[in-house]
Predict the structure.
Amino acid sequence: MYRITRIFKNNSNCSCYSLVRSTSTKSKNIPVVRQTLREKVASEHKVAPFGWFLLVIPVSTFALGTWQVQRKKWKEDVLAKLRSLTKEDPIPLPEDLNEVAKLEYRPVHVKGKFLHDKELYVGPRSFIKDGEASTEGSVFSEGNVHSGYNVITPLKLSDRDEIILVNRGWVPNKFKNPSSRPKGQVEEEVDVIGIVRFHENRPPFVTNNMPQTNNWFYRDLNAMCEKTGAAPIFLDATTDFNISGGPIGGQTRISLRNEHLSYIITWYSLCALTSYLWYKRIYLGEIPANRFLWNRPK
């Protein structure tokens, strides 16, 4: 079998181990001898201060993974709160429009007349159903619908001398022109229930708005108000306001960037990997097999 032999170098206390084969036993005992060798090396190995310092890596990755778990729960709670806000009972639009800054995602009730000659079109946009993009057919088509526009129409309020912007809803591409949907261009006074929305910064890789040609790619509230003469109030009409032949309301997308699950997997995986490497290389002091000295008699 193999037996462990200590080899001293240069008459110092530094030693290593080799395996010397004995012809009196069978080779099936080799795994046992290897394990004994590892235990012998580990018993004489001491973790240096720098080795303990390297524990910072697995500890830090574990802490970051735990932090992402907390962030994920917080983000999900925020989304749930926003969804609940959109389902609350509508309130009248405050007399002081500055108070609207506290009402994002809250439904409000307004009354007035649409100024159809100042319509704006934001798109291309997917049809939103229950807060998520959908490809289902609409009242405008029998087949699947993939792309269209949100119709933004100024509303002259009845109870005050103010104009606000209302996202009446979504129309497919072929109904972007208002002449293709005359039934939806109501002239009489209307009651609108809408969700308060704020200014939207330009998303990455999205083209700049072109107000001169009435091409809008994101909700730039300041530029829209400047073009239409409206106050900086923007409402997404709810499905309660749907008019036959008009845009489809309920185009409020409730979404926040939530990639915390992928971060959790990444940090905990790094923690497990670095912990294993530290335990094997630093604590046990194991070295690659090709660094062991194997003495085999010829």
Q: What stands out?
A: Helices lie at 30-43, 49-53, 56-86, 221-228, 260-283. The chain is about 30% helix and 25% strand. The first strand starts at residue 2 and ends at 8.
